Amino acid sequence: MNLPVPAAVDTTGYRLGPPQRAGALTMVPVFGPAYPGIAPPRSGLKLSRVVTYGQVELTNPAAAGVAIVPLHVGYIQDAAQNHALCRSAFIAAGQTLRFDDACCVQESQGGYLAERDQWFFVLPVELRAAALRLRGTSQYSKLWGDIAGFNARHGLPARGHLEQVLTRKRAVLTQYQSRLELLDGQLGALFGIGDRLVGVEVAPDPVYFAEVWMALVCFAYGPAAWFAAPGPDVADPHDSFAAGTLDGVRAALQRRRRRVADEVGEWLARAAWQPGELTEEERYLDLRLSTVTGAAVAGQVVTDGSRLVYASLFAAA
């Protein structure tokens, strides 16, 4: 199967690896050609300051290499209002960029940080279509209503506090980081909830993807999987690990892997995943940042000519 990205994007050299499953969350690894010269998001991109509500500054402190800001990245920080971005962007080496259209994800001062720390996340997939539509809108409270609805749907107080999930449930969500294995050379992933494709994430290289991995698997897609899970994993009756021998266990594991691969292949084949046309938003030398909007799929991609460099696409409905 080809990567489900807009037809104008060249995905030559990309391939999918064997799927992995943790409860309701499925991850299909993506491998492909690395694109050099892009600063990774954790070690090569810094939150400089929150200027005021709805305005944040990010810096690329590297001596060389442009930074591609991960789409919908957000920051949890002690003693400051927590924000997320509605769009991606380029930041040249040594430069600082102010985002005037950031959204506050903490309706009132005083979050639920258990300790003095700072870390970044990516908005939960259920909020990403709304955030993308609000790019360019300078109103710090613009996502509070959507966050309140997100919380209410999952039995939490209907407030514009994203920390009710990201911070209070952090210990639960971070389990996905260990239950799904990041593989050597992996630079992307397809994410599914149940039998539905909900996300396509491709990074410029494996280092970039490794640095955004936790933000994606735990916080962008983890909440939807956690809410969708009926409870603790139940042993599949097709898997027999009572064979009594190591060979028997290996055979059972192989049967399970084949069955999961077949199931994932079926729902990927029937996925109503038809990314639309690209609308160019920004340029940096040969790189183009474009937005994809549609009834079923939305997100942003970065290309060099037609070559894929970065993609963050998600189910829009």
Could you give a quick summary of the protein structure above?
With 317 residues, the chain is α+β, with helices and mostly antiparallel strands.
What does this structure look like?
- The chain has 317 residues and is α+β, with helices and mostly antiparallel strands.
- It has one domain (15-225, 244-315).
- It contains eight helices and 19 strands.
- Strands 1, 2, 3, 14, 15, 16, 17, 18 and 19 form a nine-stranded antiparallel β-sheet that branches. Strands 12-9-8-13 form a four-stranded antiparallel β-sheet.
- 43% of the residues are buried.
- The model is unreliable at 110-116 and 232-241 (pLDDT under 50).
- Residues 14-314 form the ARG and Rhodanese-Phosphatase-superfamily-associated domain.
- It comes from Dactylosporangium aurantiacum.
- This is ARG and Rhodanese-Phosphatase-superfamily-associated domain-containing protein.
Our count of helices gives: 8
Count of domains: 1
Order of helices and strands: EEEEEEEEEEEEEHHHHHEEHHHEEEE
Q: Work out the strand percent.
A: 25-35%
pLDDT averaged over residues: 86
Q: Structural class, from secondary structure content?
A: alpha+beta
Instruction: Sum up the overall morphology in one term.
Output: globular
Largest sheet: 9 strands, antiparallel
Helical proportion, percent range:
10-25%
Q: Kindly, what is the distance between the CA atoms of the first and last residues, rounded to a whole number of angstroms?
A: 23 Å
Low-confidence stretches: 110-116, 232-241
Strand tally is 19
